[in-house]
Amino acid sequence: MNTVKKVLAVVLAAALLCLTLTACAQGASNDPKDTLIFAQGADPRGLDPALVDDGESSKVIVNIYEGLIKYAKDSTKLEPCLAESWTVSDDGLTYTFKLRQGVKFQDGTDFNADAVKFNIERQMKGNATEDMPYADFVYGYVTKVEAKDANTVVITLKDKCTPFLYNLAMSMAAPMVSPEALKKNNNNVNEAPVGTGPYKFVRWDKEQSIVLTRNDNYWGEKAKTKNVIFRIIKDNSARVVALNNGEVDMIDGIDATVVDEITKAGNTVDQPDGMNINYMAYNTQSSICGKPEVRKALSQAINVPELVKSLYQGYATPADTILPSFVPGFSKDIKQVAYDEAASKAALAQAGVTTVHVITYSNPRPYNPATGKALAEAVQGYLSKVGVTCNIEVFDWTTYKQKVKAGDFDICFYGWTGDNGDPDNFMSLLSDKDPSMNVSRYDNAAYLDLIAKGKAAAEGADRDAIYAQLEQNQVDNSVWLPISHSKLLSAYRPVVQGYYYHVTGNIFLSGMSKTK
Amino acid sequence: MQNELDAVVNEQASEVVLEKPESQLKEMWFSLIANKGAVAGLVIILLLTLVAVFGRFIMPYDPNYSDMTISFQSPSAAHWFGTDQLGRDIFSRIIDGTHISLTVGISAVALSLTIGTILGAIAGYRGGKIDTVIMRIMDMMLAIPSILLAIAFMAALGKGIDKAVIAIGLVCIPEYARIVRGCILSVKENDYVQAARVVGNKDFRIVFKHILPNVLSSIVVRATLGISSAVLDTAALGFLGLGVQPPFAEWGDMLGRARGFIFSAPYTLIFPGIAITITVLAFNLLGDGLRDALDPKSRKI
Questions:
Q1: Are B79 and B73 in contact (CB under 8 A)?
Q2: Membrane-spanning regions, if any (chain B) (predicted)?
């Protein structure tokens, strides 16, 4: 009996060993140089660009699909992609796109004007289904799409809307999906994505990984690395460990607390400014902050660069403008109200301001990882030095949004993460009729006029100048105190060449390679 | 007549249940100070009370003054416990927090003790339907995790020290109600209680004059231990961001916001943690000591 057991044990051990060896051998036969591994914190919701709205989906989508227009590598300036060129009629209502010729979807379907028409009509009013979160945002203005010839598409809008071009570069709703694939999959390619991009879909093991491989028929420069794996590692610290072990090549979804750990292991942390703004808003309808001179004096009391440096420990850039520096329309000539404690104290004493009612949120936000509470307390500290007491009320995010909408406050804290890289997407916040968007309840005739002009003006320097004027208008009236642009943190191993994390929070892997 | 009879009953009660009160107290005191842990706990509590009352005179800095240029300073001669994210002196904030922790701890226990004792006394003495109704409500409260219940109360009441006292106080009521009810059930059939009833005492008088003094020791022990759990609950609420409104210093709140800097600035986390631990430990030691001292069975002869 005993010998039987022993023999069994030996056989089992040998079998196990063989299994391990073959597994290793299989691993070894694939050159690690040929596979880029990117680890993210959650499974994509899906891979059909019309049906998702989350960043985790977006990162995979941009490697499989392309839109008519794309963003430049380091900004949100527009560049041609599947459309080689476009013209806008003088009345600003008709957009004519000349499409790139000879492009095929990964399933062999031709990319042409009919495919574009199919994709847009799928998401237009009437056809768009409930589960298309960005359909209205991107195509809400479109009234008609015509395929003039195989390579010309004419889109008609109901109103002037220059941001429409920026919408077409987004990773949601705008990327072109193979019409054949959509027909075959019942109008939902969440799990069978087919685009024109540099990588094509191979396999998706839910909650584990997504495997892509090079599209050898790609129209442009072919991807440098043959395979791409998106690994799902939920736990933040486990993801950092995986990177430091060399198990994965790139990660995102990290915060400032792990930066040291990553750099100590010899890896690099990438930290461009994100497409966001973290700001303090004055309620222009409150009895205290209704006066521009009071708002200015309160702003003067706060040393923003010092505050940002200490609160965000270098992982945010002090904001002088509402627009991040890479968004068209950004002007480096705009400067915020300068820090001047003495002037502030005098002005506030003269205006008789002794207490202000401040509301804030208790949780971290993407544009404010330090939490609204810490930010409010920092402001409280500065204002106490100029003789103003802040009564701070802290709420959880859901309650906070209701409180902001209700408007019973002098100062509140808020932020914005851009959708499409268009300046209007940021600047129109202060013109919105909805107080949950325009939390300052700012209502300025000159500002509203400029916003309307900006929406209608054609792409270019003239339009950019309008947004500089809008920024100046905001500074002159001290409606907000822009605080910071939070950085996007991601990290990669030194073997990765050509790494870049786009300001929209996407990662384009086709230009990256590994040295070993 | 009533008073005379009372005196007789009391005397009888003392003879039955207790020895002479003074000698019992004395004996208890000796037993307590013979317990090193209890003495240590008592000394720490006295020190904490002094700090809570006179803390403002020994604070090196204004606990709410923030200087953003010196955020996250490691402990040094200028800032013994370092500075936090907003450049506030952690040592001063911990001293300031003593006041809040002790106030909330003691007031919450006082609240739950009062209400719990009354409810428990009524339930235990009256029995019957009243007992069932009261105790089933208490059971329901006990069935919900206390911190969850406290969070629910805080959500309904809003933030602030007074609200924290109410939330934590309400949550602890069932414990006291059950203890008091149990004790009353065990003494109410005693002869001296019957005698008090026979001579025509009102129920109220019987409960407060004759019964409660005899269950006092269990309540005192429970209350002392209760303070330590109230301090812990306060810290838990603070940790979850439901405690005091900023900028007031509260240990749990300090701990909660320091959590994100555990690797980069561990001192922001360690010191409030130590403060909570020491306070809770002191009340636990004293509570244990009191229990031993008040329990005749465990007393050394």
A1: yes
A2: 38-59, 100-125, 137-157, 265-286
Domain ranges of chain B: 2-56+87-298
CA distance linking residue A155 with residue B111, whole number of Å = 71
- Token pair 């636990």: residue: B284
Which chain A residue is nearest to residue B160, measuring alpha carbons?
A: A393
Alpha-helix runs per DSSP H in A75-204: 113-123, 135-139, 163-167, 179-184
Cross-strand partners of A480:
A281
- CB proximity list for B10: less than 8 A, separation 6 or greater: B192, B209, B210
Chain B residues in contact with A381 (beta carbon < 8 A): 64-68, 86-88, 247
pLDDT at A28 over 50: no
CB contact under 8 A, A377 and B247: yes
Q: Is the pLDDT of residue A17 over 80?
A: no
Inter-chain contact A371–B257, Cβ cutoff 8 Å?
A: yes
| Cα A212–chain centre separation | 23
- Quote the pTM value: 0.77
Q: What is the pLDDT of residues A346-376, one digit of tens each?
A: 999 999 999 999 999 988 888 998 889 889 9
8 Å CB contact between B120 and B178: yes
Is residue B2 pLDDT above 60, yes or no? no
Least confident span in A53-57, B3-7, B256-260: B3-7
Q: What is the pLDDT of residues B104-159, one digit of tens each?
A: 999 999 999 999 999 999 998 888 899 999 999 999 999 988 888 888 888 888 77
Selection from A395, A401, A404, A403 nearest residue A372 by Cα? A395
Whether the CB of A479 is below 8 Å from some CB of chain B: the reply is no
Report the CATH number at residue A124.
3.90.76.10
Query: Rounded CA gap, B154 and A11, in Å?
Result: 63
The secondary structure of residue A418, as a DSSP letter, is: -
The continuous run of DSSP H or E covering A76 comes out as: none
pLDDT given for residue A3 in this prediction = 65
Query: Position of tokens 């914190």?
Result: A41
The pLDDT confidence band at residue A24, using thresholds 50, 70 and 90, is very low
The beta-carbon neighbor of A380 closest among B87, B247, B260 is: B247
Q: pLDDT at position B58, please?
A: 87
CA distance B275 to chain A (A): 22
| A230 within 8 A of A60, measured Cβ to Cβ | yes
Q: Which residue of B has its CA nearest to A260?
A: B264
> In this structure, which CATH number among 3.50.50.60, 1.10.3720.10, 3.40.50.620, 3.20.20.10 belongs to the domain B2-56+87-298?
1.10.3720.10
Question: How deeply is A30 buried, as exposed, middle or buried, from its count of CB atoms within 10 A (0-12, 13-18, 19+)?
Answer: exposed
Q: Does A47 touch chain B (CB under 8 A)?
A: no
Residue in chain A lying closest to B73 (CA): A310
